[in-house]
Write a structure and sequence with these properties.
Oligomer: single chain
Largest sheet: 5 strands, antiparallel
Number of helices: 6
Mean pLDDT: 86
Strand content: 5-15%
Structural class: alpha+beta
Number of domains: 1
Strand order of the largest sheet: 1-3-2-4-5
Order of helices and strands: HHEEEHHEEHH
């Protein structure tokens, strides 16, 4: 004999069965939002030219081992790479360059391991500070990756 169960009773049973399970809290990722100055700078960048960003407000580009940020527009990394004199991002990474894309620093490298220099880490930290971005995000991204 089947007994009909109301929706509220069904949800009550489901909640009771689920509430016994222990679920680890998940840390939400930190989402970086560009400042107005960053957006204006990005929109004013010329296409295919090497622009050195001394103010450290670019959202995209490459950071050389000396800590100098070469800025480009979104999806214009290849043109910048060629303008700088490289044939591939893998070649740049082998020489210690770090890619910045959509406000994400690829500190560990995508094609090979990169050991960030002290100058690069200082520049990245200054980038976070100048743009008033969450320093906790910087620590998560950069702290385990230090060399001279």
């Amino acid at each position: 004999m089947d007994k009909e169960v109301s929706c509220s009773e069904l949800f009550s049973r489901m909640y009771k069965s689920l509430s016994g399970h222990q679920v680890k809290p998940v840390k939400m990722p930190i989402i970086l939002e560009p400042s107005k100055a960053m957006r204006l700078f990005d929109n004013a960048l010329p296409l295919g030219m090497d622009v050195i960003d001394n103010r450290l407000i670019a959202m995209n580009g490459f950071l050389c081992p000396d800590g100098i940020l070469h800025a480009c527009r979104y999806q214009c990394h290849q043109a910048l790479m060629i303008e700088i004199g490289f044939q591939s991002e893998a070649q740049m990474e082998k020489r210690g360059w770090i890619k910045l894309s959509n406000m994400t620093w690829f500190v560990t490298g995508r094609h090979c391991a990169i050991e960030a220099t002290t100058n690069q880490l200082k520049a990245i930290e200054l980038w976070y500070r100048r743009n008033e971005l969450d320093l906790e995000h910087f620590e998560e991204v950069c702290q385990p990756n230090v060399s001279e």
